[in-house]
Amino acid sequence: MSEPRFLKTAPAARAAPDLVDRVTSTFAHMPDKRSDECRTLRQTLGYCWRVVTVAAPERGWDRLEHWAQCSDSDVRWVIREDLKKARLTRLDPDRVARLKDKLI
């Protein structure tokens, strides 16, 4: 879903943030996030957003902004994890700092 080598073409890069957005939306509405499956999905999403944002910055940042305002603590954890990594900081350090401030 979000391996950098799969996002090298423009169509794949453009589609990736939409796909991860849909998965995040589904995850946000799951009733039991303590199951092993949900934990795995949460950890996976904690990697996906930074990869798809680097591949398609405009689409990725817009969606990260949206999810940073989500009230779901697990979704907020996902975004916080993504913002900790150098990949996004190299892309736009100011934006990372602003999003981190929203998550406090």
Please describe the topology of this protein.
Layout lengths: L9 H19 L7 H20 L1 H12 L4 H11 L2 H6 L1 H11 L1
Helix pairs in contact: 1-2, 1-3, 2-3, 2-4, 3-6, 4-6
Can you tell me about this structure?
With 104 residues, the protein is an all-alpha fold. It contains six helices and no strands. Helix 4 (73-83) packs antiparallel against helix 6 (93-103). The longest helix has 20 residues, at 36-55. The chain is globular, with a radius of gyration of 13 Å. The mean pLDDT is 94.
Helix content: over 70%
Q: How would you sum up the global shape?
A: globular
Work out the helix count.
Answer: 6
- What kind of sheet is the major sheet? none
Poorly predicted residue ranges: none
Q: What is the C-alpha radius of gyration, as a whole number of Å?
A: 13 Å
Please report which band the strand proportion falls in: under 5%, 5-15%, 15-25%, 25-35%, 35-45% or over 45%. Answer: under 5%
The beta-strand count equals: 0
How confident is the prediction overall: mean pLDDT? 94
**Structural class computed from helices and strand pairing:** mainly alpha
Give the SSE order as H and E letters. HHHHHH
- In whole angstroms, the N-to-C terminal distance is 29 Å
